[in-house]
Amino acid sequence: MRILIVEDDFTARKLLQLHLSEYGDCFIAVNGQEAVQAVREALDEGRPYNLICLDIMMPEMDGHKALEMIRWMEQEHGTRGNDVAKVIITTSLSDSKDVVRAFRQGCEAYIVKPIKKDKLLKEMESLGLIQPQLKD
Q: Are 63 and 89 in contact (CB under 8 A)?
């Protein structure tokens, strides 16, 4: 699995990378502009991301605008349905307006920070990205 972590906070970025590295190759973008560029390059190379963990509050370009542009680029490349990247919003914003806006823009899940590994894995399971985790 190819995973893009879009997060401007170093600690949150490292934590997500630690949680996700056993499930695929993790790539990093520190703002929305870098994320859009990374997705553009991945689509052009024919190696799109399977999962994008996207923060909302970032410098340069926020997550809402980045998500809007990512979905537009996928459409332009003919990527539709189950082939689009699964986007999990990872943010400290829990306001219902932000949540609704993110889902309208095409995210599949929304997790409020701090990110707990079990919550992240549960969302990945529900999106069909990983197999259900066995409970001890």
A: yes
